[in-house]
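Problem 12. The chain below contains 271 residues. Write out its predicted structure in token notation.
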Amino acid sequence: MNSVFGRLIGGLLLALYAGLASAANQLNFQPPMPRIASENYDLHMLMMYVILVIFCVVFGVMFYSIYAHRKSAGHKAEQFHENTTVEIIWTVIPFVILIGLAWPATKTLIAFKDASSPDMNYGELIPARPLTDAPLRHLDQRAFRLSELKGKWILLQLDEADCAAACSGKLYNMRQVRLAQGHEMERVERVWLILDEAPLETRLMREYDGMRMLRATGSPLLAEFSPAGGVRDHIYLIDPLGNLMLRFPKNADPREMQKDLARLLKVSRIG
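Solution.
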């Protein structure tokens, strides 16, 4: 009987874990980006953990009591009507839990209303959307997909192979912004989507070694980037889940770009 009950409980717990794991991305918040969103996410997760612990304790005690004190095991129902100590305990415990949760909730609420130092992004936030995982090509024609960089933050630009002054400036800024992250720079990749089939200067390949230079001619991926203002004018940021989520302005200030990226790396839990 014990082994059957143990297998039943184990199966239920395994099914619960599998269900939670498969639904995590659909049911939970999106990964937080600004500081205040990170605090809100932390509060949400704290509440969920407290609820989970209460659920496990209450139902664990209940099911144990039902099983361990069953009539078939020789137990008889107790006859009692009140117990002052028990009543005090089950009144005090919820009160303590509520007071414990009130502190972080109040702190986060005050932070929402505090506009003395607004948490603003330099780049323009784009409603996060997954990019089409369309095939691209290395310069030597080897196949490549952006999904191969999943788990990394991606700085991305689009331009022709002749790479005029504005294009070179974007390549330089992407390299410097990544280097400025110090020991965190390994979390960041750089991608150049080349919009034509013209040959690339050897100088560019040497100067920006480590950048993914990918042919994107005719790729459906290009339709994912809004032509407003010209896709060649911007550097884009893709999150580690493959979502396009931020666009830096034309002639962007690399110091402000570095601040945006550093903030995201600091609060990110996904890459």
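Discussion. The mean pLDDT is 83. Students who got a different answer should revisit the alignment rule from Section 12.3.
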